[in-house]
Amino acid sequence: MRYDLVIFDNDGVLVDSEPISNRLLAGYLTELGHPTAYEDSLRDYMGGAMHRVHDLVLERTGRRLPEDFDDVFHGRVFAAFERELEPVPGAVGVLEKLAADGVAYCVASSGSHERIRVGHRKAGLDRWFDDGRIFSSQDVGRGKPAPDLFLHAAGRMGVAPERCAVIEDSPLGVQAAVAAGMDVYGFTAMTPAAKLAGATRLFADMGELADLLAG
C-alpha cells in the first residue's frame, strides 16, 4: 500500500445514502416553498454540510429556512435509513483488506456525528469505525469544499497530507481533498466522471479500490 492513511467520505462511499437523503431534501425544500428536484439536490448539495443548504437558499431567495429545519430533516432521514439503508456494495471488502494489511483508515464526512453513527449501525459498518476513526464537519469551522475536515482527520490520525488517499464521490469532496494536498479517488457510481475530473484516479466499482490503492 502506497498510502499511510485512507480517508473515506461516508454518504455514497460507505453507505448508500445519497439517493435517500437527496430525495428527502428535495421534497422538504419543495414543501417549504423552495421548489427543488432530486437532480437539483444532487447538483447543489451532495457532499456538502447542512450550512450549505441554508446558505444557498438564503442567497437565492432572501428567506431563511425554519430554525428546526435540520432537526426535521434529520428525523426524516434517520427514519428512512432504518427502512432502506445498505452499505455500498464492495465497501466491506475494502475495509477488510485495509484492516488485514494494517493500513490506517477513517471516515471524514460532511454529515453530523449522529448521522454517521446511525448510518453505520443500520448498514452494519459500526464495527469498523470506533470514535477515533470518525470525523465530521461538526469538528471544523468550514465544511467541504474547504480542506479543513480532511486536514483535521489527517492531523488527528498523525499522518502527513501527502501520505493520504481520500475516497470521494462528490465534486465538493474532490475539491476539498485537492486543496488539502491529498490524492483523491473519485467514485463514479452516482456522479458523472466529468464532475470529478479533478480526482487523481476515477473508479466505478468499490471492489476495484483496494487494488487501485496498492498499485
Please, could you describe this protein's structure?
This protein is α/β, with parallel strands linked by helices. It has nine helices and six strands; from the N terminus they run βαααααβαβαβαββα. The chain has a six-stranded parallel β-sheet, with helices on both faces. Helix 6 links the parallel strand 2 and strand 3 (about 135). The protein is globular, with a radius of gyration of 16 Å. The N and C termini lie close together (about 5 Å).
Low-confidence stretches: none
Terminal CA distance: 7 Å
Query: What is the alpha-carbon Rg in Å?
Result: 16 Å
- Name the shape in a single word: globular
Describe the structure concisely for a colleague.
With 215 residues, the chain is α/β, with parallel strands linked by helices. Helix content is 45%, strand content 12%.
Question: What are the salient characteristics of this protein?
Answer:
alpha/beta, globular, 215 residues, 6 strands
SSE arrangement:
Layout: E1 5-8, H1 18-31, H2 38-45, H3 50-61, H4 69-84, H5 91-101, E2 104-109, H6 113-123, E3 134-136, H7 148-157, E4 164-168, H8 171-179, E5 183-187, E6 201-203, H9 209-214
Parallel strand pairs: 1-2, 1-4, 2-3, 4-5, 5-6
